[in-house]
Amino acid sequence: MHMTRCGVGIGTVILIWSAAFSGASAQDCAGLKNFVVAETTIESTEAVAAGSKAPGFMGKPDPQAAALPAFCKVTGVIQNRIGADGKPYGIHFELRLPANWNGKFFFQGGGGMDGMVSPALGSVGRGFQSALERGYAVVSDDSGHSASTGGAFGHEQQARIDFAYQSTPTTTHVAKQLIAAFYGKTPNHSYFVGCSNGGREAMMAVQRSPLDFDGAVAGDPGFRLAHAAVGEAWDTQAFLAAAPKDAEGHPILSKSFSNADMKLIADAVVAKCDALDGLKDGEINNFSACKFDPAALTCKGAKAADCLTKEQVAALKKSFDGAHDSKGNAIYSSWPYDAGVGDMGWRMWKLGTSETARANAANVTMGATALTEYFVHPYVDGLTVENIDFNRAATLIEQTASINDAVDTDLSTFAARGGKLIIYEGLSDPVFSADDIMDYYRQLEKANGGVEKTESTARLFMIPGMSHCGGGPATDQFDSLTALENWVEHGQAPASILAQGAAFPGRTRPLCPYPQYAAYNGTGDPQEAKNFICKTPGQ
User: Fold this and answer.
1) Percent of the chain residues topping a pLDDT of 70
2) Which among 127, 130, 128 is positioned nearest to 119, based on CA atoms?
3) In sequence order, which residues have a C-beta less than 8 Å from that of residue 435 and are 6 or more positions away?
4) Does residue 301 form part of some domain?
5) DSSP-based helix, strand, coil % in the chain, nearest 5
6) pTM above the 0.90 mark?
7) Do 344 and 471 belong to one domain?
8) How many CB atoms lie within 10 A of CB 131?
9) Is 512 part of a structural domain of the chain?
10) DSSP string spanning 99-144?
11) pLDDT per position as a tens digit, 237-292
12) Catalytic, out of 196, 319, 428, 467
């Protein structure tokens, strides 16, 4: 396609930009404001000198944040329009173009229900250089709607499609045109990295846009969001059944299990399964061999500190068995028992901390919005977490799931181009089930010629103890981007990924490709990853 800027050929638009802006002025970055891209409005451009700091949590200054390199920041909107519901829509994006470009492109995945443009930094994990710091051109977007609409964007057909999968290729194609205009060439390699909904987006990019990316990292992916939303309602109902009631007779969700109760459960799981990997270290590495039944904790008499009531045991079993209809048909996956069940991250999703009947658990606050306003609307009005009919749930989510769930197993085009996919998942993720992603990976193996052929394109790494996208009693800090680069660019498949974590100071562990797990070799310092091997269960 022939692109022009104010009638001038693209050659005059190409800018030569050195690492310190020498030989080019801030006006060069500003010149992109007038670059013509179909259906796109460039809203702003800004040349940012080296030394600026990345924003911290919730946009607050972080004195520990790394100083960023010089870059040109471009913001814009694609397909700006008024939707069928009369509300404004468009795919808003931010693109950061570093002065010292490494020739690569990084798409930064979103999170939750998206709806906001996060700073395009390309974070790959705490303690590791961001993609922007490494010289990547980085883009982020809001997936086509504003968070101010809540879940109501799901009422609008195109907005629903953009969120599901279409915004990624749309933004990618615009970003690559801007990159070509700015640097004079297209990227040598393109990667997508995200966690949570961003992980789902990474899987969608591989499945539905296999020509756009050379590799992707899908962290804790909500790859079956519609089903997971039903699972959140299922869990909430299960735990409410074991909750004490307030003076008006309303159950208090957070009090269904105390912190001490959850520690009791976590300690019991660790006592049962920790040593199965050959070492008692607080991590359940041999997770496939862990068979825990909470019934063992049932009080023989009155509730005591070292046991659970029969109602609590029933609630746990109902939750961990997964959502299903009255005929036993699964709607969402089961969950593994793991050391992280006692972590605050698990509590905040499943139970919350509210002292009243107004629950603050994310399963209720975020989950209810997703369930009632997006995932089944407009098929059922007045649906709540408390009144959902699980016998109808699978039918109610069918249309949304068909466009939103990243469950395709045909990776033939992506694989033929040498594409590589790394998936990782916390075994204690309280949002998206680790059992679910392991089941998907087994389906991937069946559909792609078995274990060896699948491993040549996609590998899954399970992380014991880790909560959602990090946290928990886990070695949850690792550099997935370097592992992906080495695989794509140098043919070095990740036999393991080195990890560490704040929960275990001084400890390193290898993250092993599923179904392998990290096993102590019996000699050397058990704190060091070099003394572990990746072992196949049963061998």
Assistant:
1) 91
2) 130
3) 322, 333, 334, 335, 336
4) yes
5) 35, 20, 45
6) yes
7) no
8) 26
9) no
10) SS--SEEEEE---TT--S--------STTS--TTTTT-EEEEE-TT
11) 999 999 999 999 999 999 999 999 999 999 999 999 999 999 999 999 999 999 99
12) 196
pLDDT band of 444, cuts 50, 70, 90: very high
**Distance (Å, whole) CA 503 – CA 470:** 11
Q: So what's the pLDDT on residue 152?
A: 80
User: What residues make up the domain containing 155?
Assistant: 1-55+65-187
233 in the same domain as 171: no
Residue 112 has pLDDT above 60, yes or no: yes
Residue 145 is among the residues annotated as catalytic for this protein:
no
333 domain-assigned: yes
Q: Which of 261, 405, 468, 480 is catalytic?
A: 468
**Residue 288 appears among annotated catalytic residues:** no
Q: Collapsing DSSP states into helix, strand and coil, what is residue 308?
A: strand
Q: In this structure, are 203 and 183 located in the same domain?
A: no
pLDDT band at residue 382, thresholds of 50, 70 and 90?
Answer: low
- Tell me the average pLDDT across 399-428: 96
pLDDT digits (tens, 9 = 90+) for 131-159: 999 999 999 999 999 988 777 888 889 99
Among 52, 54, 99, 47, which Cα is nearest to 74's?
47
d(CA 330, CA 326) in angstroms, rounded, equals: 10
Listed residues 369, 403, 437: the one ending a domain: 403
Residue 397 and residue 416 in one domain:
no
What are the distances in angstroms from CA 148 to CA 76, 83, 88, 221? 18, 15, 11, 24
CATH number (domain holding residue 196): 3.40.50.1820
Q: DSSP letters of 397-440?
A: THHHHHHH-------HHHHHTT-EEEEEEETT-SSS-HHHHHHH
Q: Is 196 a catalytic residue?
A: yes
Q: Using DSSP, state whether 219 is helix, strand or coil.
A: strand
Tens digit of each residue's pLDDT (9 = 90 or more) over 185-217: 999 999 999 999 999 999 999 999 999 999 999
Let me know: does 241 contact 253? Beta carbons within 8 Å: no
At residue 467, does pLDDT exceed 60?
yes
Q: Number of folded domains in the chain?
A: 3
- C-alpha 259/C-alpha 170 separation (Å) is 46
Active-site option among 429, 433, 467, 480: 429
